[in-house]
Each structure stands twice: as structure tokens, then as C-alpha cells.
């Protein structure tokens, strides 16, 4: 693709990166076939190729309009197009650059601005979000069904292992996951403990920064990244061998710290090292001897696995969790159109609710068609979104594995609780 970027952008880091991405695109349109929003609207501008042209126009000096912003807003950032693209176009990164430029040119209406600022003021902050969630749970019984179903029920965490192993890995403090489903981190620690690995909770570690970054607040998102790097670094120097991410959306972000902070003279080297050491939980378990872990003792443990976009398209780890669960004795129900997004996509379900609900309906139909006892997934956003309307329990896959550990019930029914 030929480009003629404006003079100021041509000499900026974002501009040079965007131009490189644009020049890789050959207009083939293969990406359109796997784009969820193109499937909904059948509009070229609501597919990757059309959005690439919109970003290109802005980079070349065209004035962005509300219509430009609308089509970019409708993108889920699922990156299914990247998996499909034969030319290796890094669409997700181009979209981030384009959205940031458009955000500076097009002033949103007061309602939209309020929504986005409120999301950034609450969701990335663990304590604030926890207070909001507890309040919502306290009034859940008097809310309309459509609202109450979106509020995650209270779930407790089991015990955190007390043993200390020579091998140590670091956990991400996170933002919403500790309040919504604290058992995910505890289950992660218990499974790793059986493998001879201690998972360390690090004071000061929190939100990965993805939500702010993808809403166009790039510096705010990078500040979250810097805080995590500061929190983790003493443990890295002390010999911690990895940063373990059990929320696949956070995993994509942390793995990109090195690239996103490459121009920061203070953090560039440490950010690159953190990205090198970052591992999705499935990557860690796939490399370990899992024979010490239990297996479900029943052939009735039939589950459907929803592989989040951030795992299969963002991190290119599709099939890894499925292999681990199969080895643990689970029967995986067939799922049609596994590449399609469930509609959660970070804050997308809150900012684009109609499109999100349509995609959720399609995804649940595919997941439940095989009559599973439960649905497993690998990202807290997907879990909450699916859980709001699923007819069977939705669990993080590590919780399913945790329930198979020696000493736990082996009747195959634990997944229903």
C-alpha cells in the first residue's frame, strides 16, 4: 500500500510504525471473512480493510469525522484479522495509533465522554471497582433481570498455598479479577504449587494498563505498565523466572510492554525484560510435567472451551489450553466458529451493548450446542460476559484443573458448582 503521511507524522515513532504496517497491506480482503463486525453490518468500513483505509486517510492529513470515529469504535480489537492475514499486517497496533489520532480530532458528545472517563476512573482501580461491585451485589435482588444478570455473583477463593519453593513466578495484581472471581488466582497458585512453583503476590502490582490504552488514553495506560514494572523488578532481580498471566487480555498487554515503552529511556530495558519473561498460564503448564496433577475421574466431564481472542489471535496460543484440559481427562464439546469474538472485548460490551449482545447470542449458541456441563475460558472479561446469559456454569480453565488436584472430588460434577 502506497502512503503519503503528513510531515509531522512521518518523523514520529507512531507515524513510522503506522507507515510500516500500512505498506504491508496488499488489499486482499481475506481479513473481511473473519471479522465479527463485518458479519454484523456487511459494511466495508466495519471490516479491517475499510478501517485501515480510514486510518490511512487520517495519517495522510484528511480531517477525521464522527463517522470515522464510529467505525473505529465498532472494532472489537479481536485481531482475528491478524490470524487470517497472509501478509502479517499488525492491524491491532495500527488501530491503536489511528484511534488516538482521531480521539484528538473529534470531540465526543458529553454522554460518551462521561462514560469513558467513568470507566477509566473505576475499572482499572482495584479498590474502587471492588466497592462498586459490592454495592451492586447488595441491590441485585431489586434490579431488573437484564441488569442483575450482568452482576457477577459472589465467589470465594480457596486457600493460598503456604509452602515456599525454590522456583518462583510472579502474579499480576490485576484490577477486576480479584473482586469478581478471586478463586482464579488462588487456583493458579494451587496448581503451580503442585508443580513445585511458588506464585508470588506482589504489592504494588495492579491493572495491566490495557483498558486505558485501548480507550485512547495511552499515557495513562503506560503509567500502569510502569507501576507494574517497578513492583516486579526487585523480584526479577532476585531470580523470579517468569511473570504469569492468567487473564489472556492482560497477557497481550504485558507482552507488549517492551514495544510500547521502547522510547522511554528509563523503562525501555526493564520493559523489554518483563515482556521476555511474561508467560500465559497455559504456556507455563504446557512446559511442565503435569503427571503430578490429577485427572477428572469421570467420562461425564464434558465442557465447551471458549478460547478468547486475546489468547488465540493476540498471543497465538490457540489449542494449548484445549490440549491441557484433554490430558486432564475432560471431554471437549465441539464449538463452531471458534475464531469469532464473544462480544466482551474489554469495555466493548459497555460501550457497544447492542453489537456485543448479538455476538454473545451467536457465541453461546455455538458453545452450548454440544450440551456441555460447563463452559471454560481464559479471560475474566469473557467469563463475566458469557456467564451473564449462559445456561451452564462458566469457569476459568485453571479452576477446572484445580478441582482435579489430588484430594479434590473426582466425580466430574465439581464444574457445576
Feature tags:
417 residues, four-stranded parallel sheet, 8 strands, alpha/beta, globular, single chain
Written overview of the protein:
It is a single chain. A four-stranded parallel β-sheet has the order 2-1-3-4. Strands 6-5-7-8 form a four-stranded parallel β-sheet, with helices on both faces. With 417 residues, the protein is an alpha/beta fold. Mean pLDDT is 93; it is low at 409-414. Helix 23 (380-387) links the parallel strand 7 and strand 8. The chain is globular, with a radius of gyration of 21 Å. The longest helix is centred in the middle third of the chain and has 20 residues, at 218-237. It has 24 helices and eight strands. Helix 5 (66-73) packs antiparallel against helix 7 (91-105).
Number of strands: 8
Distance between the termini: 53 Å
Mean pLDDT: 93
Structural class: alpha/beta
Strand order of the largest sheet: 2-1-3-4
Tertiary shape: globular
Q: How many strands, what sense, and barrel or not for the largest sheet?
A: 4 strands, parallel
User: Over the alpha carbons, how many angstroms does the gyration radius reach?
Assistant: 21 Å
- The number of helical segments is 24
